[in-house]
Design goal:
Blueprint: E1 2-4, E2 7-9, H1 17-28, E3 32-38, H2 43-58, E4 66-72, H3 78-91, H4 102-110, E5 113-117, H5 123-137, E6 143-149, H6 156-166, E7 174-178, H7 186-199, E8 205-207, H8 215-225, E9 239-247, H9 256-281, H10 290-302, E10 312-318, E11 343-348, E12 360-365, E13 372-379, E14 398-404, E15 408-416, E16 425-431, H11 446-456, H12 465-484, E17 490-493, H13 500-509
Parallel strand pairs: 3-4, 3-6, 4-5, 6-7, 7-8, 9-12, 10-17
Antiparallel strand pairs: 1-2, 9-13, 10-11, 11-12, 13-14, 14-15, 15-16
Helix pairs in contact: 2-3, 2-11, 5-6, 6-7, 7-12, 8-9, 9-10, 9-12, 10-12
The structure holds NADPH dihydro-nicotinamide-adenine-dinucleotide phosphate and 6-O-phosphono-beta-D-glucopyranose.
Length: about 525
């Protein structure tokens, strides 16, 4: 039986030794933890931030003394705010299965939460927030404050300025979690970095890219560098092409205020997908220490030329064919004449000895036929004449890393058709997934892992400034060209697989039929 806050929770399966040790440390920690979520009325706070905090609470991974303040411009009472948040938490409660009765813990979690209404740049509102924090922290001698910016990027700076002025903690540490996209292009990102650095120290800034906290992103490094079988495989001698795909079924409903300003390239390609690419392509790091890994990632990025418009297809979703799903511009938070792409396919190249000539094909889109994020490493065909098997349509081997909706790794191979006289081949899969083999109750959500890192002050899975600059360098010329030439995205019906031009572009580089 463990003590978390003022509630007793029962540990169902035994805890991993590291978790047990961490829980002990946290329980012994006398520091009062305050978390301020700016933009608490929004999609991210609702879908990810609060569920992750609640899950940590259920796991006994928050210190005994903590408080979470939600802050936003929306006028609502705490009860109205809580109604929305708790509905989401209840709907997710099956995920919190490591302890009994997560639902029962909700009431206790609620007693650690509050909501304040205010503007992001009004000093008086932040003075109010500062007073509220002092009140909840009471006479705690040691305080750690996390400011979480669950906000569109144009509001980051005014909010941090206001917070720095009126809410800065003088009884311990301060950490600021900044969401992506960080800026709109290379120049604005540099400017934002410089402005934030004038207010904060580097060690106080945690630039989050939640794809770095996903189980399969972390597994990629293990797969590549802990297995001799795979070490040589990640090389131009064996790899024909790499496809990284991010597909979502949901559109951008009610998120137009943010999304229309940024578009799909800034929303997921320049950050999440680039992170996956660097994990696939980096050389072996000197160690698994955070800076060694990040050094290797930056080296890969530096060897990548900017993406060309001639190798890009843009799209925007329209009403679904049956008229049931709305089009992008049907949302009244989106301007009717918006040309913001909700879909993009593009080809990236790495000019180094390992990857020269291997296309990395990115495809990302909203309102598509299914939700999947995956990496497909397509291997080369056997050299002509080197194969005994002359089967028609013999597809090359492919290593698939499925990031979501469920985590899996498998290798597509060919085996002999079983039977006395049969000689032909049949395609099958060598399943390398870990989930079915280990007694894993559930995998932590990326935000849960990353928020715990913030609370512990561990920067390992956060984005470094040089990494960010290189990622922007690769996409900025394309983004400028799209905007300067006012390029029309190709329409595609919601629920489809995107514009057909995307299929044609992919087919140029990828030999499977899609
Ligand atoms: P939202 O559009 O939901 O915005 C969050 C909140 O910010 C809103 O509830 C609103 O609160 C306030 N807001 C919105 N537009 C403006 C504006 N123009 N000026 C001032 N305040 C505004 O965005 P998300 O929550 O989806 O995203 C927030 C950040 O998180 C973004 O940087 C996004 O990239 C990132 N992110 C989002 C994810 C997601 O799944 N949604 C996942 C990963 C990252 P109010 O009006 O009440 O003040
Ligand atoms: C966010 C984007 O960064 O990632 C959203 O802003 C997107 O548009 C989300 O929906 C996807 O995250 P996940 O974890 O559901 O793949």
């Amino acid at each position: 039986v463990l003590q978390s806050g003022n509630v007793k929770v029962v540990a169902v399966p035994p805890l991993d030794v590291h978790e047990e040790h961490l829980q002990q440390q946290l329980r012994a920690d006398r520091t009062f933890l305050s978390v301020v979520v700016l933009g608490a009325s929004g999609d991210l706070a609702h879908k990810k931030t609060y569920p992750a905090l609640f899950s940590l609470f259920c796991e006994g991974l928050l210190p005994p003394h903590f408080h979470i303040v939600g802050y936003a411009r929306s006028k609502m009472t705490f009860d109205q705010f809580w109604e929305k948040i708790s509905q989401k938490l209840k709907s997710l409660s099956s995920f919190f299965c490591r302890r009994a009765s997560a639902i029962d813990l909700l009431a206790s979690f609620k007693s650690h939460c509050s909501y304040l209404q205010g503007l992001y740049d009004r000093p008086a509102d932040f003075a109010n927030l500062g007073n509220h924090l002092k009140e909840v922290e009471g006479d705690a001698e040691q305080v750690g404050r996390v400011l979480y910016l669950a906000l569109p990027p144009d509001v980051f700076l005014p909010s941090v300025k206001s917070y720095r002025q009126s809410c800065w903690n003088t009884k311990g540490w301060n950490r600021v979690v900044v969401e992506k996209p960080f800026g709109r292009d290379l120049k604005s990102s540099d400017k934002l970095s410089a402005s934030l650095m004038a207010l904060l120290r580097e060690r106080e800034i945690f630039r989050i890219d939640h794809y770095l906290g996903k189980e399969m992103s972390l597994s990629l490094t293990a797969l590549r560098f802990a297995n001799v079988a795979f070490m040589p495989l990640f090389h131009r001698d064996y790899v024909h092409s790499v496809r990284i795909t991010f597909k979502e079924q949901s559109g951008t409903w009610r998120r137009g205020g943010y999304f229309d300003n940024y578009g799909i390239i800034r929303d997921v390609m320049q950050n999440h997908m680039i992170q996956l690419l660097t994990l696939v392509a980096m050389e072996r790091p000197a160690s698994l220490k955070d800076d060694d890994i990040r050094d290797e990632k930056v080296k890969v990025l530096k060897q990548m030329p900017p993406v060309k418009i001639s190798e890009t297809v843009l799209g925007q979703f329209t009403k679904s064919v049956d008229g049931q799903l709305p089009g992008y511009t049907d949302d009244d938070t989106v301007p009717k004449d918006s040309k913001t792409p909700t879909f993009c396919t593009c080809v990236l190249w790495i000019n180094n000895e390992r990857w020269s000539g291997v296309p990395f094909i990115f495809k990302a889109g909203k309102a598509l036929e299914s939700k999947t994020t995956e990496v497909r490493v397509q291997l080369r065909e056997a050299p002509a004449g080197a194969s005994f098997f002359h089967e028609p349509n013999l597809t090359p081997n492919e290593l698939v890393i499925l990031v979501q909706p469920h985590e899996a790794v498998y290798l597509k191979i060919h085996t002999k058709k079983p039977g006395l006289l049969s000689q032909g081949l049949q395609p099958t899969e060598l399943d390398l997934s870990v989930m079915d083999r280990f007694d894993v109750e559930r995998l932590p959500d990326a935000y849960e892992r990353l928020l715990l890192d913030v609370i512990r002050g561990d920067k390992q899975n956060f984005v470094r400034t040089d990494e960010l600059r290189e990622a922007w360098r690769i996409f900025t010329p394309l983004l400028h060209e799209i905007e300067e030439k006012n390029i029309d995205p190709l329409p595609y019906p919601a629920g489809s697989s995107g514009p057909s031009a995307s299929y044609d572009l992919i087919q140029k580089y990828y030999s499977y039929k899609q």
